[in-house]
Amino acid sequence: MDGSGKIERVKVPALDEILGVPFKVLNDGFIRLIDYMGSDESIVQAARVSYGKGTKKVHQDRGLIRYLMRHRHTTPFEMCEIKLHVRVPMDCWRQWIRHRTASVNEYSTRYSEAIDSAQLTDDDQWREQSRGNRQGSTGFLDGEVGSELSEREAALIRDSRRLYRERLEAGVAREQARKDLPLSTYTEAYWKIDLHNLLHFLALRMDAHAQWEIRSYATVIGEQILSRWCPMTWEAFQDYRFHSTALSRREQQIIRMLAAGRPEDARRLAGEFGFLNYDGPRLKPNRERKELEEKLQSLNFKIPWLDGR
Amino acid sequence: MDGSGKIERVKVPALDEILGVPFKVLNDGFIRLIDYMGSDESIVQAARVSYGKGTKKVHQDRGLIRYLMRHRHTTPFEMCEIKLHVRVPMDCWRQWIRHRTASVNEYSTRYSEAIDSAQLTDDDQWREQSRGNRQGSTGFLDGEVGSELSEREAALIRDSRRLYRERLEAGVAREQARKDLPLSTYTEAYWKIDLHNLLHFLALRMDAHAQWEIRSYATVIGEQILSRWCPMTWEAFQDYRFHSTALSRREQQIIRMLAAGRPEDARRLAGEFGFLNYDGPRLKPNRERKELEEKLQSLNFKIPWLDGR
Amino acid sequence: MDGSGKIERVKVPALDEILGVPFKVLNDGFIRLIDYMGSDESIVQAARVSYGKGTKKVHQDRGLIRYLMRHRHTTPFEMCEIKLHVRVPMDCWRQWIRHRTASVNEYSTRYSEAIDSAQLTDDDQWREQSRGNRQGSTGFLDGEVGSELSEREAALIRDSRRLYRERLEAGVAREQARKDLPLSTYTEAYWKIDLHNLLHFLALRMDAHAQWEIRSYATVIGEQILSRWCPMTWEAFQDYRFHSTALSRREQQIIRMLAAGRPEDARRLAGEFGFLNYDGPRLKPNRERKELEEKLQSLNFKIPWLDGR
Amino acid sequence: MDGSGKIERVKVPALDEILGVPFKVLNDGFIRLIDYMGSDESIVQAARVSYGKGTKKVHQDRGLIRYLMRHRHTTPFEMCEIKLHVRVPMDCWRQWIRHRTASVNEYSTRYSEAIDSAQLTDDDQWREQSRGNRQGSTGFLDGEVGSELSEREAALIRDSRRLYRERLEAGVAREQARKDLPLSTYTEAYWKIDLHNLLHFLALRMDAHAQWEIRSYATVIGEQILSRWCPMTWEAFQDYRFHSTALSRREQQIIRMLAAGRPEDARRLAGEFGFLNYDGPRLKPNRERKELEEKLQSLNFKIPWLDGR
Prior knowledge:
The structure is a homotetramer of 309-residue chains.
Chain A: H1 13-16, E1 23-25, E2 29-37, H2 40-51, H3 61-70, E3 81-89, H4 90-96, E4 103-106, E5 127-129, E6 137-140, H5 143-169, H6 174-177, E7 186-194, H7 195-205, H8 212-229, H9 231-242, E8 245-247, H10 249-259, H11 263-272, E9 278-279, E10 282-283, H12 287-298
Antiparallel strand pairs in A: 1-2, 2-3, 3-7, 4-7, 5-6, 9-10
Helix pairs in contact in A: 3-9, 8-9, 10-11
């Protein structure tokens, strides 16, 4: 390591161009980039401190970043930092704030009047409760029902706001007047996080199982901001993390049999693992088997305990 | 340090007696102790690891705990841990959850229907906006106004709940149906935190500037639970932290003059520090001077720039 | 959730039996269990708070823990906590302490004399530098060389200790006298961590790539302590985490071709991904291809770009 | 809050000038600034998000920063971040790394050969063990003794390094060869931390009780780097934190009596608090009384239980 000499601050021109510009999300939300520290280059630089003089030029930058991502060497990614200004419905913010590794300054409705805006739902945006997944939604209600729901929603939000204003006019303290605002009310915050923890946030919140609202925000952060900031990291994240799949010890054992052309042994193993319990002629539901079947299908394997596939 | 020998698990009988018993807070909230690790004795034990063999019996336990608290030696307090089951309005929970050093499992309104209960306000509990403190309240509105506000509140909460139920019946996903629930809706959580971070929570949330709702919860935790769990720590916390006061460099300089019987020099210093700017004959408001005046009065000093006190 | 009624504290009898008993590690190190909070049952309890009333008995405990582990639902595992008393060479402790999510009280060599013990190496325990892995070792040096090295080691440690004592006798402050103690000197600490973060520690430090010393400690924690404390979690950890393997997006694409019986397409893809660069007739080294080859072999696939397998 | 419009990145020209330039510390250590995010202005900006529109221009920047510091409103200070490249003896690094809220990439002596440099002690730099403070030093040993100690130190460091090299030449793995290096061996790291946590580090490590070595580093960070980066914060930190003093509940009670001209009552209170236990005619040592006496003297009070002052 060279301990001498003046250096220039790391800049990412593609990111400087969007500093402060709001990306719209939902009906009245946004994300704005406020500041950043570091770049793909800074990750490499930090990783090379660990490696000392020995590795100069041994790895190319891109290869090194991909290696770090693949092997979950996470500390060099902590060397980058980003600060966003976001406007988000409180309901969505409740999920967001569960990520404890960020720094936050949120708009205070003790100090100032609540932001006069709420997340409104369009007629065709009412999502149906999923049956298979207790905490998910699937498809949309039809427009007529939706239209009625949207109208009723608008009325409730109006009523809540009117009551809020009446309380303030009656002299009620802001900290108490706000108590019945709907969760759909927008809040704003400065949110600062390092890249390692941002990737964790994105892995969970860009995921298909994340709620649509927070997924919308996460996707903007990933596709519009991170992709410009650290393009090599963004690419490696998608290959090795976001689109990767994990095989458990048992799943590996079953695939080993299938790859060796021994479907009967694979079936036998599945039985031993308790995946194939029958209720008469029908397989009983088993969540772990279902997940395995999805992986096998995605990998082009024939599932040995299912006929006619 | 003695590395040998079987030990018994640390127990606090006074705490075992209240395990699981709900302490009521607000109209329908509670705090229940679920589990704990350690005691005053464990703090001492951990501190003595640092000190090695050299210190056995040098300090008595109580003296050592008081020393650690006074000098902000915080790591031994991390050796104790507590787990609570709480029921809290979401608005209050929004403040609570800002303490990032705790572990949390919250009731999921994606997975299950929202708890059918909200924080209702009694007629005589509507607090007035403080004028001096933008983020505080002071006193109560009169009962007639309050009665009207409480009625209107109950109606809004009823309407919100009815709409929530209608959405669920129409098949809207729970994750979306909840979006306009009022912030006063109760949630529940398991909340686990170590003693050092709990003391920080209590210092901020038992404080007179904390909002009444969260102060009510914090006070129960301190007075009902911590006082039984670690009585020496609780006592030291009150003496050296909760009821302590800090003097800035400038405040010390001014007190030095007052203690030496030189009020004119104290006044001169206050002027040099920019505390005494006049608007004609009247002192201009200055927040730092005001805080100093409160400290001087509390310490029985005559304030040299105020006549007739 | 039932908010009423007294409960008993969670106990794990199998763990109570080993409280305080030292497990020996290395020549003079140990691990002793000091205290714990929670059990497999507490993980389930916390997870069910999230799920509300809806799920009682829907999942059996073991199934739920396995589900949580498989899907990286980590917060319920934070609800368990463990406290250990460890004696570790400082060199090993330097790695250990990099896990920032634990609470620590370490023996202070400012306050007390350094522990008079160092990690000595047996004649046949000198490990050879790995060639393939710059940060690993492989096999042992032969006994004659080792014997010489061990003798020289013992002499250096003796000299260092003698000098340390001489400094103390000359009146040098402990904080300075210690400055040239060898890294092999033992230290002691109380170390407290929650189960989620402990699993992360074990995943990294029980791994074959971890240095032998810290692996020895991690293995004792896993096999001797965690296996008694939370046996369901320990089992699930091994299946879904410790012995799991991850397939990147590209690796999945290649396996898809192999499973469909199209090795030529698999080979073509590998080429497109830049895995198959030739230096004349020989494949150039490529770390990502090498890792893929190991996975394919372990899964019983024939590697399409290698002949004669 | 204005959600529109492109912004420029925050720059601190005074800091840009020293980017990369090493500040020397100890005989062969250094601190180099690598990057930073934010400035005094960013703290103000984040604080104002909390306050909403209501406060524009109400506070001046400097006043707001002083207010935040005085009242320990810490989150806005988290909005600034700094990254340093440091070279530090391992013994000192052992203390440094206990601050868990930073991001770190350290030079790896598994991967590369250990840095060939150690902290050497000049003849006149051997510090004497303090008698009053078990973990401190006071004054220096005389030069003749020091000269002998320095010679012996140099020899030990030479021997250790020679043995290290012999091990490497014999083929011992780097991860094991390093095991007996002296704690005085230099290591290097990239260290990144937010301003709030940096202030906490400086408050502890610039303190007179901190060990001289780490104090030397902390002082450079404070006086050379922070003072240029966030001059308003640096000033406020010194006034309200570094040079502030805390009065416990009891200390306030005693000062109240002294300020009211009632020394006898102050003395009586001290007795009630257990500060004045006598062993015949002499006061028994009592640490809390001693700390109070120091505060009283510093504030120009006559100590009522000591005659002849």
